[in-house]
Fold:
Amino acid sequence: MADFGGDLDLETFRKDARDWLEANFPTSLRSKQGLALALMDGPAPAGDVARWKDAMGAKGWGTPTWPAQYGGGGLTPAQARVLQQEMAAIGAFNPLMAGMGVTMIGPTILDYGTEAQKQQHIPPICRGEVRWCVGYSEPGAGSDLASLQMRCVDMGDHWQIDGQKIWTSGAQYSQWCGALVRTDPTAKKHEGISFILIDMNQPGVETRPIKLIAGASPFCETFFTEATAPKDALLGELNHGWTVGKRLLQHERASQTGVSMGGKATPLQDIARKYVGVDETGRIADLDLRTRLTQHLMDAKVHGLTLARAAAEAKGNSSPSNAASVLKNSATNVAQTRAELTLEIMGGQGLGWEGEAFEKEEVEAVRGWLSGKAMSIYGGSSEIQNNIISKRILGLPDTTQ
Ligand SMILES: Cc1cc2nc3c(=O)[nH]c(=O)nc-3n(C[C@H](O)[C@H](O)[C@H](O)COP(=O)(O)OP(=O)(O)OC[C@H]3O[C@@H](n4cnc5c(N)ncnc54)[C@H](O)[C@@H]3O)c2cc1C
Structure:
């Protein structure tokens, strides 16, 4: 196996990556647009998806920039970008993106974990062997997350956890949960919180899937009743979980700045030509639609270029920052506009739910439009991102306190 250390020439790396992807990305998965999303919502993959996951896990390329000592790819950010470009070129997706291990929990453990926690938790994430969920939101704590009430009590030789989380994505499939819990109810609300790593496979944990408007059940109500965790399960210091929790949210938002989840999406202008038709000069036969489509394509391009510029300016420092809030809102706008335009272009065919009268792409369009509504809610709503941008980037006064 080639050594992809940091000094390897980028073009040599590109060729090796291309060859490896060509040999390992199953042909049966090519052009399977949206598969990555399906993987995130469903149980453990099988068949070619499982084989692809194992190959990427063994290579460490599902976590390309993570340290090789814990099973990551050990690539430089520049190499990781090349890998991403080569994957995009053949419609390959990262099969390790199911659950929150790669995007949120793993990076936060790398930031705040003890050596023992890194050695226990990072290698199984890199190999795609475990799924993690994030237990933040509660029935009474969403945007105002610091109001969370789930209790975690020191029982001497272990922690006991009691309370309820909600909207816990993938909890029904997860072996582990990274949760914010209240360890000191007498402290100010941001100060009595800790971050704990909870084993989901125990009698005190119950998950009840909630059905989403688009038909799937991607998240759960999650109940903890006398659930337990060992004393070394806190990530970061006791009662300082708010800092760790905010860090995870930055990682989450940074992971939500791309518009496509993998696969090759059909260009919107091709969909428009098919459903709306073209005029005698070959242009899409609707001036108003053409204008809005052009605006959307320009916005999408600007978003992509801004992402590339932010990555270049980071100069190898892959730590997320408050700028992730800007990019998350921008990605949300682009994705939701694309979904709206797709339905409009398809007309009545874009309203199909099931049945032979509708092509697969048409059914996916309406479901994608509905599930895309969640983008402006999860990871903190668009309004909350705007609050962060105004306070932390623009330095405007906080008028909410
Ligand atoms: C698909 C999906 C997956 C999710 N996955 C997870 C998960 O895995 N783990 C998890 O813990 N949570 C998860 N969530 C929950 C998500 O983080 C919350 O829904 C979100 O933080 C908003 O909280 P809320 O639903 O309680 O709404 P609320 O906080 O009640 O907000 C309601 C409305 O009021 C607005 N609002 C609230 N406060 C302010 C303010 N200060 N300024 C301006 N506007 C404000 C909001 O923008 C929103 O429009 C998920 C949500 C969705 C939709």
The first helix runs from residue 10 to 24.
